[in-house]
User: What shape does this take?
Amino acid sequence: MSMRADYGEKIPNNVGLADDRRLQRALESWQPRFATWWAEMGPEIPTRDVYLRTAVNVGREGWAHFGHVKVPDYRWGIFLAERDPDRMIGFGEHKGEPAWQELPGEYRAELQRLIVIQGDTEPASVEQQRRLGYTAPSLYDLRNLFQVNVEEGRHLWAMVYLLHAYFGVEGREEAGDLLRRNSGSADSPRILGAFNEETPDWLSFFMFTYFTDRDGKYQLGTLKESAFDPLSRTCEFMLKEEAHHMFVGTTGIDRVVERTAQLMVEHETDDAGPHGAIGLNQIQKYLNFHYSVSLDLFGGETSTNVANYYTAGIKGRWQEDRRDDDHRLTDDAALVDAVTGTGNGEQSIGQTEVAALTALNSDLRGQYTADCMSGVKRWNKILAGAGLPHRLALPHHGFNRHVGVFADVHVSPDGRVLDDAEWEHRVPGWLPTDTDKAHVMSLMRPVYEPGKIASWLAPPRNGIDGKPFGYEYVHLT
Ligand SMILES: [Fe+2]
Ligand SMILES: [Fe+2]
Assistant: This one.
């Protein structure tokens, strides 16, 4: 079933907004508040225009349009993946029943909570990244930053649409609060910790888009399975845009590693830092930080809330239909991490068996970690290709954690439980120190000349939309 895309409307959409005047009016009154938020909290660097992709439909081909646009005039729209009229619920106690087109009253509170938490992350990352334009390593990278930012803005629109369309007065209030909370704010911070951290430099941006946006991908993947069909279809289309954010992170870190390796070889040194690069050990420390704070986003190892979401059919597993089990899990068990004492005061990391339904956070985190490993393999191939013996690695998932069973212990990157003294002594070798951050910041000088690039970064293999790297992706004012 295909809904016509209405691109001429004030709010471009494929949800038939013109046929629902009340909803249309509500969203049109939210629109100027979004514009104000974008002006105050969005990218700071003034531009004449930016070469951007805009979602104009959802079909397999031609869903997006590329062109130079004035950023405040970007056409943020509401697009849901096409509806499958035969879609059945794939898991939980309603498995095999038709997907819900209307909001089920008994799960209203839970669904609203899940949508608000997802919605809160979208504008948060725009806020975290708002000053990065001032230090862009190239116009190509600056353009990608704007692309990620406008799409996170559109993802906010997607969640706000659901809140307005299905959750009445409470939904409208929540939609307002999504603009009231701000990243890092003392009075009204964003809901999740990682979204209140700063993204002060481009290494952090690439790490964020690799590790933290990838958490978003996995969360969207579980909501895409939802029995509540409008949420499922919204998330399915968001995942399409999210792929580019993953690309920015993956290739961004590729290019950092490539440049660092190049200078290590050229200067026959283990530390390319003094030669205008980011040191390989600094890359490792940033990786350690961003991976560990992103793991915290998956919540505790066990969760009865998440078990209930699954049983109710509102949040599934990553690639639910590829799982070879009964998709109800009521009789299954799973192993999750546990920290155990050994009697003499020493602790070690083991596993404990729990009901599979309560272990779904651990399941999702495991899928995410396997995906993160693929990036590390890529980066190590770059190092090997440069003839270097050095390698990057993901730290143990207990390292630097503030949520779940590892929150109360110190774990080294190789998975040993450490006492406070050893942790304090070793941690400057594992997480970015002030000196590391100062070095990375010192390299963050903007390069706005078309075809030129900063010292610490290799150019991309290809440009965007078939354009060369040297294309004038951004016109600054
Ligand atoms: Fe997003
Ligand atoms: Fe994203």
Remarks:
- The mean pLDDT is 95.
- Residues 229-266 form the longest helix (38 residues).
- The two ends are 45 Å apart (CA to CA).
